[in-house]
Design goal:
This protein is α/β, with parallel strands linked by helices. It is 40% helix and 13% strand. The chain has 13 helices and 8 strands. It has an 8-stranded parallel β-sheet with strand order 1-8-7-6-5-4-3-2. α10 packs across α11 (234-247). The two termini are 16 Å apart. Bound molecules: zinc ion. The site of zinc ion has 4 residues, from loops.
Length: 321
């Protein structure tokens, strides 16, 4: 494990390269990430692969480490009871989450003991169907209750901490109340907690039009280690990152997606290809990453559809590690 707590590294001004997409990369490599999915809604996502295809999960982590990533994220995005219940694995979430943490930590220990393992935990998105499809669905804190959201983040964070991850990355969060609940719950596990906000806009707002000022105010006493923009298009990150910089005093970062339609094979969209052609090849995304670095981003990486080649290209532009 790294000698320094990530919070200290960031406070000292270091920049760190994070990995790229994990679920999308597993899908690209032929792993079934669509159990329980319909043409309108993602199901359990990539969590089942931690038990069903652990070698593939490990290979993805290893390929990102070989590409130069300083941080890999465990494959535990939706390995919680809410997302696994519809495929009959709700009561077994801990086994899947534990395997996610173990696979990532083992890959790190083998290939680069100085790299960080982030324990990734997304909010369950109870009312989200097609990614970005709803106008303004209720937050998980509204539909499940804030106490349950906190409990879920705590219980998954505790398991991942137990497996040796270095910090928790609460991610794919669109609503401010969910951000507060996620950080509060995950912090109970005792590790630093970073936050990834999804689908920010070219207008410089959070997904549903709320402001970064309101987010920063809500998190003022939370102890959050850093705020990252994630799973947004590169142009959306570029528009929103300066707004986040002005609103929040702590470390910031970004890991964008580059266009991804995971459920396309089920026929819900025009394309049958989950990974359509994109102009954001590795060199192009590295140009965006260079801009984000200039805007103050200290953690840079990729989300859906980005590959080890994208991360390797970003390695070339990052000022320091
Ligand atoms: Zn994504």
């Amino acid at each position: 494990m790294p000698e320094q707590n990530i919070a200290h590294r960031l406070a000292a001004g270091h920049r760190l390269l994070m990995d790229g997409g994990t679920g999308s990369e597993l899908q690209r490599r032929g792993i079934d990430v669509l159990q329980g999915s319909t043409a309108q809604r993602l199901g359990a996502w990539s969590g089942p692969a931690n038990i069903d295809a652990p070698d593939a999960v490990s290979e993805v982590h290893r390929d990102y480490l070989k590409a130069g990533a300083d941080i890999i994220i465990s494959n535990s995005f939706w390995t919680n009871r809410h997302r696994l219940a519809p495929i009959g694995l709700g009561d077994e979430w801990e086994r899947y989450a534990r395997a996610a943490g173990r696979i990532a930590v083992e890959a790190r220990d083998d290939l680069n003991p100085g790299a960080y393992v982030a324990g990734g935990i997304a909010t369950p998105c109870i009312e989200i169907g097609l990614p970005g499809g709803e106008r303004n669905p209720r937050s998980d804190s509204e539909s499940l209750g804030r106490a349950e959201v906190e409990r879920m983040f705590f219980e998954v964070a505790r398991v991942l901490a137990d497996e040796g991850v270095d910090f928790i990355l609460t991610e794919y969060i669109g609503h401010i109340d969910d951000a507060v609940a996620a950080i509060r719950g995950a912090s109970e596990a005792g590790l630093p907690v970073l936050l990834g906000m999804r689908h920010v806009t070219v207008g410089g707002t959070l997904q549903y039009g709320t402001s970064f000022d309101d987010l920063a105010s809500a998190l003022a006493e939370s102890g959050v280690t850093a705020i990252l923009l994630m799973c947004s298009q590169p142009e959306e990150v570029s528009a929103s990152l300066p707004v986040l910089r002005d609103a929040f005093d702590g470390p910031i970062g970004a890991y964008s997606q580059i266009g991804y339609q995971p459920i396309a094979p089920l026929g819900g969209l025009d394309s049958k290809d989950p990974l359509p052609e994109t102009e954001n090849d590795p060199a192009r995304l590295a140009e965006f990453a260079s801009d984000w670095q200039s805007m103050g981003a200290q953690i840079i990486g990729g989300c859906c559809a980005t590959t080890p080649a994208h991360i390797r290209a970003m390695r070339g532009i990052l000022d320091d590690a």
